[in-house]
């Protein structure tokens, strides 16, 4: 019995060891990151650029390409096929753009601070993290991609389309949000001073209104807002329903 138990334990240890294959990569300095093919990226701040690839097999490790071109760190599979058990850990400073596509994921375990930030997600990609950009932040989410982030910035521009799913929190001075084609946006925890909404094609937005809000809505889009804005303007002839929770569901069609 002892021999059988020992054999099982050794087998399990071997399986766990095999599941934790990693490799350090040498990279040069960069300010943008582009990841795709189902790869999971974890980005943290550090003065010295470094990267580590972790996977369940050596075959997957050798299939991961990391290269810096024109200031952009590109991370993808050599055969262009998707993977689901590869995580890349990257450290650097001065990042100002993230891009993910084809079901890749980006996670920020630390707050990323910069002057401006550009985030682009497409084709099932996902982003989770906190960004503080003193000037501007741009977020583009499309084609079933998912964004879940806390943003602190002066000016936020968001473009959401193609069944995008977006959760926005944080604090911005002015926000310009464009949503269409069944995009769903929850920004109830986003504090703004001035907000402009452009919604169409069955988009749905749930937001917290700041002092001033402008609503431009058509094509069965829907906006629900809370708060007590001093000024609310909306386009004439809008087909959407605009509900103000602070006034017992006042609506306009």
TrEMBL record:
<dbReference type="InterPro" id="IPR021255">
    <property type="entry name" value="DUF2807"/>
</dbReference>
<protein>
    <recommendedName>
        <fullName>Putative auto-transporter adhesin head GIN domain-containing protein</fullName>
    </recommendedName>
</protein>
<feature type="domain" description="Putative auto-transporter adhesin head GIN">
    <location>
        <begin position="29"/>
        <end position="229"/>
    </location>
</feature>
<keyword id="KW-0732">Signal</keyword>
<dbReference type="Pfam" id="PF10988">
    <property type="entry name" value="DUF2807"/>
</dbReference>
<feature type="signal peptide">
    <location>
        <begin position="1"/>
        <end position="21"/>
    </location>
</feature>
């Amino acid at each position: 019995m002892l021999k059988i138990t020992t054999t099982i334990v050794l087998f399990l240890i071997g399986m766990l060891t095999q599941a934790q294959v990693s490799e350090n990569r040498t990279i040069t300095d960069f300010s943008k990151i582009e990841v795709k093919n189902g790869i999971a990226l974890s980005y943290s701040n550090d003065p010295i650029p470094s990267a580590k690839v972790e996977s369940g097999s050596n075959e997957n490790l050798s299939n991961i390409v990391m290269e810096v071109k024109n200031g952009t760190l590109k991370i993808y599979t050599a055969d262009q096929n998707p993977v689901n058990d590869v995580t890349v850990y990257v450290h650097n400073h001065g990042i100002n753009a993230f891009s993910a596509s084809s079901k890749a994921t980006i996670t920020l375990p630390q707050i990323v601070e910069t002057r401006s930030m550009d985030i682009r997600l497409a084709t099932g990609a996902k982003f989770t993290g906190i960004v503080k950009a003193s000037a501007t932040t741009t977020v583009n989410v499309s084609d079933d991609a998912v964004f879940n982030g806390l943003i602190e910035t002066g000016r936020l521009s968001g473009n959401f389309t193609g069944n995008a799913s977006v959760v926005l929190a944080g604090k911005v001075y002015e926000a310009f949000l464009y949503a269409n084609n069944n995009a769903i946006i929850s920004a109830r925890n986003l504090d703004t001073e001035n907000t402009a909404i452009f919604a169409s094609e069955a988009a749905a937005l749930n937001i917290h209104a700041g002092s001033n809000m402008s609503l431009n809505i058509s094509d069965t889009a829907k906006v629900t807002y809370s708060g007590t804005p001093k000024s609310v303007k909306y386009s004439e002839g809008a087909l959407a329903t605009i509900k103000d929770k602070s006034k017992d569901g006042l609506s306009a069609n």
